[in-house]
Design goal:
The protein is an alpha+beta fold and 373 residues long. The chain has ten helices and 19 strands.
């Protein structure tokens, strides 16, 4: 094509676009609700008439609703039914399935780990297993997301997985009954006779009950010194983190929640005498509820923070289900530490800064242990 022909064609295309565009009113001219409504109707009609592909009213409506959230903060979002169901699973820590963490690894859908006491764990699946079939369907060319969709189902129903293990040529088959899986975000152990280690990976619906189990274990072993690991903890439920903090923070404020109208709700502890001496590990991925924990420990001088500055998510979201199964997550408040300090966008600075610069060592953990020597 010559440059002149290309220019003529480009000019014609630009003219068509210009004609279409000038027929639509400028959104900046909107002065009232009626005008905005008419504007959206014109855009909708324009799309229906000229858009190359078929599009339904429902698709356009959901797109418009999602657009309402476009200029809000990063944490506010509109979810379709499937997206909302997944969000609830993630937040609550409970879902119906077989209970495995899996993903794509070297072209295979691989089991990273079965969830302890879940259906897959009880059936005998192991970390490193490669899923090659689901209910007789070959899935060797599928993504982990596609395989996950096939594995999902109603509680009490069965799914048959074909597994390759340890480079064996034989395929192992497992008939697994889907059930409710509760994700335990708490793990614990003893470091030595006087020091315990408590890891909290998130604050879901099962955090408090499992922290109680850990503390009972430490009490049975007369352990009063604890390292609480909140590194890479993305947060979770405000109620759960507050209830955990009540076990460690002396009587007084834990966190303040400040709403748009200026109202402040204060959560407090009534603990007379803390039982444990604490060191709390934090890093750049400790966010939201884990920062509430760190902020309370720091301001109330209930322990020592070790690590690096936290993520800096100092706002609270409400999750709202809608009648059609969709849902909304909306930022409704900010939280302040006991000393009424906002950490949003700033994070919480540890009392002792330690960077994990050596991949072969956990320098932060080593520093925390040294505090109890």
């Amino acid at each position: 094509m010559t440059q002149r022909k290309f220019f003529r064609r480009f000019t014609a295309l630009a003219l068509v676009l210009f004609i279409f565009i000038i027929q639509l009113p400028s959104f900046g001219q909107a002065a009232d609700f009626q005008y905005n409504t008419e504007y959206l109707q014109e855009v909708e009609e324009f799309i229906k008439e000229y858009y190359l592909h078929d599009v339904t009213d429902e698709q356009l409506m959901k797109g418009a609703v999602k657009g309402l959230f476009y200029n809000l903060d990063d944490y506010s979002e509109y979810y379709t039914k499937d997206e909302f169901d997944k969000l609830i699973e993630d937040v609550s820590g409970s879902f119906v399935g077989i209970g495995i963490y899996m993903g794509d690894d070297n072209g295979h859908v691989t089991v990273f780990s079965p969830i302890k006491d879940g259906p897959a764990y009880k059936a005998g699946l192991k970390a490193g297993d490669i899923i090659v079939s689901v209910d007789g369907k070959d899935v060797t060319s599928y993504s982990s997301a596609d395989v996950s969709d096939l594995i999902r189902g109603k509680i009490g129903t069965k799914v048959k997985l074909g597994i390759k293990r340890n480079d064996s040529k034989d395929t192992l088959y497992f008939n697994i009954t889907r059930d409710e899986v509760k994700v335990n975000p708490v793990s614990y152990d003893t470091v030595n006779k006087s020091l315990g280690y408590l890891n909290i990976s998130q604050f879901n619906d099962y955090t408090v009950e499992n922290v109680d189990k850990a503390l009972n274990y430490f009490d049975q072993h007369s352990i009063k010194n604890l390292i609480i690991d909140l590194r890479n903890n993305p947060g979770g439920s405000v109620d759960q983190v507050v209830d955990v903090l009540k076990k460690f923070i002396p009587a007084g404020s834990i966190v303040h929640i400040k709403y748009k109208d200026g109202t402040i709700r204060t959560y407090s502890s009534s603990l007379k005498t803390p039982k444990y001496k604490l060191a709390v590990l934090i890093n750049e991925n400790s966010a939201s509820a884990s920062e509430i924990f760190a902020g309370a420990v720091k301001d109330r001088k209930a322990g020592t923070l070790v690590g690096v500055t936290t993520y800096g998510k100092g706002v609270v979201q409400e999750i709202i289900p809608l009648d059609n199964g969709d849902g909304i997550k909306l930022t409704i408040a900010e939280y302040l530490t006991p000393n009424k300090i906002s950490i949003d966008g700033k994070g919480i600075t540890p009392d002792i800064v330690v960077k994990n610069t050596d991949p072969t060592k956990d320098l932060q953990m080593e520093k925390a242990i040294s505090l109890f020597k």
